[in-house]
């Protein structure tokens, strides 16, 4: 029974992140605020949205989003304001434009380079001649016999 209660509490944890005092009276504005806050990264928790995070900074960001919406900003203007203030790192899904394009393309480019290097290596190995066995010289045979007799 304790496990069931614990599991239910863990599943409900993201719901508890937005406190009742933060919720806007207008359901349409609240839905927009929740949509925006689900796309913004908590700068303390790193891989959680501010909608799910319990950190004080995430709460401040949620309140800032709601203030901007109440002031009449569109969703894009609100996100742009927060990105201008905190940088593009605050976005959970960064855009693949500008300098970010290089980051998005780096993985596939590195994979292609690794496959190319592996192909060159395998091809070079297949073209290499087999190493030939060489018999020991008389001096080497004599030295080996000395070592084995010791």
Structure overview:
The chain is mainly alpha-helical. The protein has a domain of 89 residues: Helicase, Ruva Protein, domain 3. Helices cover 63% and strands 0% of the residues. The chain contains six helices and no strands. Helix 2 packs across helix 3 and helix 3 crosses helix 4. Belongs to the CcmH/CycL/Ccl2/NrfF family. InterPro entries: C-type_cytochrome_biogenesis, CcmH/CycL/Ccl2/NrfF_N, CcmH/CycL/NrfF/Ccl2_sf. This is Cytochrome c-type biogenesis protein. Keywords: Cytochrome c-type biogenesis, Heme, Iron, Membrane, Metal-binding, Signal, Transmembrane, Transmembrane helix.
SSE pattern: HHHHHH
Q: Give the proportion of residues in helices.
A: 55-70%
Shape: elongated
Strand content: under 5%
Structural class of the secondary elements?
A: mainly alpha
**Low-confidence blocks of residues:** none
How many runs of DSSP E, i.e. beta strands? 0
Q: CATH fold name of the domain at 2-90, please? A: Helicase, Ruva Protein, domain 3
The tally of helices reads 6
CATH superfamily of the domain at 2-90: Cytochrome C biogenesis protein
Determine the mean pLDDT: 83
Reported for the largest beta sheet, the result is: none
Level-1 CATH class name of the domain at 2-90: Mainly Alpha
CATH architecture of the domain at 2-90: Orthogonal Bundle
Radius of gyration: 31 Å
- N- to C-terminal distance: 75 Å
Protein name: Cytochrome c-type biogenesis protein
Transmembrane segments: 101-122
GO molecular function: metal ion binding
Signal peptide: 1-17
């Amino acid at each position: 029974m304790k496990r069931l209660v614990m599991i239910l509490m863990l599943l409900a944890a993201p719901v508890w992140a937005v406190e009742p005092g933060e919720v806007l009276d207008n359901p349409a504005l609240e839905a927009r605020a929740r949509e925006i806050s689900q796309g913004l990264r908590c700068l303390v928790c790193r891989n959680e949205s501010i909608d799910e995070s319990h950190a004080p900074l995430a709460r401040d960001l949620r309140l800032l989003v709601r203030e901007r919406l109440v002031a009449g900003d569109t969703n894009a203007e609100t996100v742009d304001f927060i990105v201008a203030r905190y940088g593009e790192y605050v976005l959970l899904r960064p855009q693949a434009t500008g300098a970010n394009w290089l980051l998005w393309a780096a993985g596939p480019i590195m994979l292609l380079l690794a496959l190319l290097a592996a192909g060159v290596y395998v091809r070079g190995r297949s073209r290499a001649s087999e190493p030939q066995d060489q018999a020991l010289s008389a001096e080497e045979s004599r030295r080996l016999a000395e070592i084995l007799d010791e």
